[in-house]
């Protein structure tokens, strides 16, 4: 059994409470939220701005946390929309209790993410989402066309939420389809926030 920590849009991960972006509506985090954050992320977010260098440092810290716990995360790479991430593959084939090993991996991943990246990554991802209506419409149409070419049943007029729902329904498709859909998401990634949380 091999577990893979993958790179997926926030809009596809219910546990993040993420959604597609339809315009800014105030700060992401209150002063109380920031005060309650882990120190690493609180120090970054206290001034209300996340620079690329700060965001990159959070991704590196999360990766290092997993590495120190004994896992082997892949190299940090571009995942579209001005964002970076990495993939972790875990082989349980030699574990006496694969379910327990998987539970430990997920708990470790959750800890590392919450300690170093969750809030910083959310803020950075939101800052990368395109808000210009004309550009959003261009990307939406491109995304719809790409998904249709990949074999998904979508309409040229579907909004972003409908397109993401079509992607959700095809998460267990064959590998070629998943790869094609992944390319579509990459090219249209600035329509929505992206996070390395997911599996």
Short structural description:
49% of the residues lie in helices and 10% in strands. The chain has 199 residues and is mainly alpha-helical.
Protein described:
The chain has 199 residues and is mainly alpha-helical. It has 2 domains: 2-128, no CATH class; 133-190. Helix content is 49%, strand content 10%. The chain has 8 helices and 6 strands; from the N terminus they run E-E-H-H-H-E-E-E-H-H-H-H-H-E. The chain has helices spanning 31-35, 39-45, 52-68, 98-116, 118-128, 133-149, 160-168, 175-187; strands spanning 2-5, 8-9, 77-80, 83-85, 88-91, 194-195. The strands form 3 sheets. A two-stranded antiparallel sheet has the order 1-5. A hairpin with a 2-residue loop joins strand 3 and strand 4 (83-85). Helix 3 (52-68) runs antiparallel to helix 4 and helix 6 (133-149) runs antiparallel to helix 8 (175-187). The two termini are 14 Å apart. 34% of the residues are buried.
Write the layout of secondary structure elements.
Elements: E1 2-5, E2 8-9, H1 31-35, H2 39-45, H3 52-68, E3 77-80, E4 83-85, E5 88-91, H4 98-116, H5 118-128, H6 133-149, H7 160-168, H8 175-187, E6 194-195
Antiparallel strand pairs: 1-5, 2-6, 3-4
Helix pairs in contact: 3-4, 6-8
